[in-house]
Amino acid sequence: MSQPLVELGGAPEAPVMHFAIANGFVPEIYIPLLQPFFADYRVVSLPPRALWDGIPAPAFGTNEWDIMADDILAGMDEHGLDKVVAVGHSMGAVASVLAALKQPERFTHLILLDPTILLQDLGKALQAAVRAGMAERIPMVEAAQHRINAFASVEAAEKHLRSKKVFSQWDEQALRNYAEFGTVSTSDNGGPRELRFSPAWEAYYYAAYTPLYDLLPQLNGLLPTLFIQAEDSNAFVPKTFREVQEIVPSATYVQLQEQEHLFPMVIPQAVSQIIRDFLNNTLV
User: Fold this and answer.
1) Which among 71, 96, 62, 128 has a CA at the least distance from the CA of 226?
2) Pairing with 137, which of 6, 52, 268, 274 sits 20 to 30 Å away (CA)?
3) Which segments of the chain does DSSP mark as H helices, in order?
4) How big is the CA angle at 6 (ends 164 and 199), to the nearest 5 degrees?
C-alpha cells in the first residue's frame, strides 16, 4: 500500500523537515509551529497508520510504536526523502528516535518535543496491564475509547473543542486546523463529520507504548539532538528529563516553564524560535 505524504509547506527542492505527530492528532495542527520553516525547508509528514485510508485499528499490543519507525523509513524510501531534519511530538518523537537509531545516515538532526518517556515503573505497569488483557482499564485507553467522534459540521467540531479545558489555551489557527483537518465528512454531500484519527486507533496507540530507556545510550553522539520538555508534562516528567540528560549528555536540553504536554499548539512561535536557534547552532 502506498503511504500518504502530507505536504505542510515549503519548496519541493528545499532540504526536508519531517514532522511525526502525537497520538490522536493530525499534521495540520502543527502548521503554526512549522510555518516559520517553510522558507528554508520542505516540511512534510508521513502520518501513522491511523490516518491511512481503510485500515482498522489492530488488537492491543505492546512495543508497537516501532512499527511507526519502520513506516517512516519506508515512506522516506517511497517518496525519495533523505538527509531529513526529524521533528516529533510525544509518540511521534519516540518514533523519530527509533527510526534514527535504525538508519542514522538518513537524518541530520533530531528535535524531540516532550517525547513520551514514562517513568520506568509506570511504563512497565502499563505494559503488564496490556499483556494481561486489561488494556481497556488503562485511563488513557478508556478515555480514548469514549471520545466524542461525531459532529454536525466543522463549526460544531470547533465549538466542541473550544469547550474543553485541554484546548483552551491553544493557538487559534492550530485549533481551527484541528476542527477542519482533524475531521472528515461521513458522506459525499458534506454534513456530519467524524474524527479522522479514530478513537479505536488512539486507544491502540496508548496501549502500544514502547519504552526508550534501554536504547537511549545509543543516541549519545549519534546526531545533533534537541529535547524540549514541558515542566508540567505528564508524559516526560522532570525526573525522567533529568535522567535522560545523564544518559545522553551530548544532546541539547530546554525546559519550558509552566507548560504542559501540548505546548507545541499553545506557544508555537516560541517553540519555533527554540528550534531555529538549535538548527542555527548545529548546521554545518
Assistant:
1) 96
2) 52
3) 31-34, 66-79, 91-102, 120-131, 139-145, 154-162, 172-181, 199-207, 238-247, 263-266, 268-282
4) 40
Which among 187, 280, 262 is positioned nearest to 226, based on CA atoms? 280
Going by DSSP bridges, is the β-strand pair 150-151/84-89 parallel, antiparallel, or unpaired?
A: unpaired
Share of the chain above pLDDT 90, in %: 94
Task: Say whether pTM exceeds 0.90.
Answer: yes
- H helix or E strand, kind and range, residue 112: strand 107-113
Q: At what angle do helices 66-79 and 91-102 cross, to 10 degrees?
A: 70
- Angle in degrees, CA 210, 242, 102, rounded to 5: 35
pLDDT score at 191: 75
State the pairing for strand pair 183-185/193-195: antiparallel
Query: What backbone phi and psi angles, to 5 degrees, belong to 9?
Result: 160, 170
C-beta atoms surrounding 257 within 10 Å: 7
Flag whether pLDDT at 284 surpasses 80: no
Identify the structural domains of the chain with CATH numbers, from first to last: 6-282 (3.40.50.1820)
pLDDT tens per residue across span 58-109: 999 999 999 999 999 999 999 999 999 999 999 999 999 999 999 999 999 9
Q: For residue range 167-219, what is the model confidence (pLDDT) as tens digits?
A: 999 999 999 999 999 999 987 766 799 999 999 999 999 999 999 999 999 99
Kindly report the number of other CB atoms within 10 A of residue 269's CB atom. Answer: 11
